[in-house]
Amino acid sequence: MRHVFDARRSSRKAIDQSGVWRFREHVLDIDESLIITHPEGSTRLYERDGILFKHEGENPTGSFKDRGMTVAITQAVRLGAKAVACASTGNTSASAAAYAAQAGLRAIVFVPSGKISAGKLAQTLAYGALCLQVRGDFDAAMRLVLEASQRLGIYLVNSINPFRIEGQKTIVWELLQDLDWNPPDWIVVPAGNLGNSSAFGKALVEARDAGWISKMPRLAAIQAHGANPFYRSFRENFAQRHRVSPETIASAIRIGDPVSYDKAVSALRATNGIVEEVTDDELMTAKRDIDRMGIGCEPASATTLAGVRKLRASGVIGDSDRVACVLTGHLLKDPGAATVKVIEIDPEISEVERILAADR
Ligand code: F0G
After folding, report:
1. Which residue CA neighbors atom 9 of ligand 1 most closely?
2. How far is the CA of 254 from the centre of ligand 1 (A)?
3. With a threshold of 0.85, does the pTM exceed it?
4. Residue 264 banded pLDDT, cuts 50, 70, 90
């Protein structure tokens, strides 16, 4: 018997607090009493060194995934699903588990064995999901969950699910709203399975068509060099789709065969966007700098700042261009990736004095 909290159905107040359901007319046509919201969204916008950072790590489970998950789980319940499934590098699984717990659904998640951070795995398990560690990479887990959901009639909540995309559009709308609908020149986003790039393109096209903005920002989707199939396709003007064997320290985007490739190509074309790649060294340097700003993020999110630096150096992003980076996950999602030194001492004041003198 699974325990279902009163939060299963959302109060009007929760809906109005949600940065997703504030835009509900443009997200999902559904009776408000059926919406399952934590609430999520309404994240902060920071400005540091002339660059804007929208911190989606401030969502309830620590990543932007909650924006799409509230919609996908609402839809799952509407359809009468009893179980939901996803493949994940750790953030989708944590979000799916949390929202499934709220809705009283069973969550089954498929993760690449040994390739997701300990924190994300712990979080996913704590929310009560059944976690299957697949021997293989994320792409193998993705193929397996696609087959499993079709065969076993389990509702799939990966971003291939269009309801996820509808929710993730609100990252861009909320950013534009934060800026009084004066769009930046660039919106910069990490690119892995390409759900978010797809959602951002759709959000921008809809915002322009509705007359909310009069100028189209350009999307910059940034990949890790070792997991760069989208970048490879972009370099060939999307003549062909690439698949790679992925390797990067940014485990969230360690993906070689992104499932939302076609939608992301449309998004890039609609926004005159570009795709860039950055090395692990470049993204970890950027992560250290974002951390030292007192903001912090997980490695995948730092591809944004690393990408901005590279695109400024090559002149693609102009010095006076306004740039908004979307930080997709919280610093504490992947603390093992932090490059910090910890000093252990005996409980003596002389030890403290010695260390402080040496650190000057
Ligand atoms: N940043 C973070 C922190 C992520 O967790 C992901 C994807 C991305 C960026 C890339 O977004 O896939 O829409 O292009 N994480 C997925 C997961 C794959 O399973 O949590 P995308």
Report:
1. 190
2. 9
3. yes
4. very high
